[in-house]
């Protein structure tokens, strides 16, 4: 059987398994095992086990559970509530000020936690009911939270960037810093659209501004309360800044920086928010362990899947076919973007990266594209998948927070933000320096 036909059969088998609800790691591992047994026989069982364990035995992967623990400590504390209060005070007078402050809170919280679902849940539980109470349309209230949560996989420190760096053997520090400007650019685009949408719907401002008398009576109390909330958040932001400085300055490896960051965030959560009880600490450890095991299983089985495709010459055949396309390199980039976009519709970011990055990187380099620039493009494509059906994880998180908002309203409210991400990709294609200027300035 020729490699292309075999590859199509493998792809169909994988899609069928995932469509019937098989966990991604087990679907990848099962298809890989059957393909290897068919192609090579029982002797391949030895290589299956060796490939599985060798991949996750790399020391660099220690950074993943540590960053997840760091994020879980932040997500399980009232940090999101404090961020929300602080930003609401400063941005409340803008058109759609509360929605804009929610996007700001999502951006910062996503960077602290590194988890899109955690960001949607933490900020959405407070922000969505408050926005609806103040008259915001359901679509705007749901869409701004769903979109804001996606920024966690782009703004550093990002677990997906770590996985990309390990999968492609590129500098994780440089990847982190490449995501800074594009991340805040996307946040800015989200805020601009939110203000436009709210202005068209009549404008929604902080109720404090509705009555001058009420403003005089309450402003001091609100300023004091929100300044205290901001002071509680600043140490966590300091930890993130310290991690980035350690990585960019060559002071520590990603694993070392992640370990120190996890310890400090856990200690801050205990000291600042008085989380002395065993229950909250047990919850943090449980969530960290669960997500770490899930990600590591996906990485290990994706490596076996890549080995299976390579051993059957599927990867080489597809890569050669794409590389031999006599088309403009931007047409090639368009095809790759479309492929990543469709993959993001069905698979979580981690799975897409570990399955496709090693295959796509040689093609990207052959077309004379920068691998760090491409990492940002890839990540934004995966962000779009988080707020678009059929999987759209963030959509279902929002539905769980506000079950009385229809899934159609949530989707329609999120789609303009997906278009903002497409605009972000176009801007990066036109001006690659958006992603590359800061890494080149800092790291040469």
UniProtKB/TrEMBL annotation:
A Pfam short name:
DctM
User: Its topology with respect to the membrane?
Assistant: Multi-pass membrane protein
Q: Does the keyword Membrane apply?
A: yes
UniProt subcellular location: Cell inner membrane
Write out the entry's keywords from A to Z.
Cell inner membrane, Cell membrane, Membrane, Transmembrane, Transmembrane helix, Transport
Cross-referenced InterPro entries, in alphabetical order? DctM (IPR010656), TRAP_DctM (IPR004681)
The record lists the membrane-crossing segments as 6-38, 59-78, 98-123, 135-155, 175-198, 229-251, 257-276, 288-307, 338-366, 372-397, 417-438
Q: What is its main location?
A: membrane
Q: Where is the signal peptide?
A: none
Q: Does the keyword Transport apply?
A: yes
Q: Which branch of life, at top level?
A: Bacteria
Q: Where is the TRAP C4-dicarboxylate transport system permease DctM subunit domain?
A: 12-434
Q: Which family does it belong to?
A: Belongs to the TRAP transporter large permease family.
Q: What does this protein do?
A: Part of the tripartite ATP-independent periplasmic (TRAP) transport system.
Its quaternary organisation is: The complex comprises the extracytoplasmic solute receptor protein and the two transmembrane proteins.
- Its recorded name reads TRAP transporter large permease protein
Natural source organism: Halomonas casei
The lineage, from the top, is: Bacteria, Pseudomonadati, Pseudomonadota, Gammaproteobacteria, Oceanospirillales
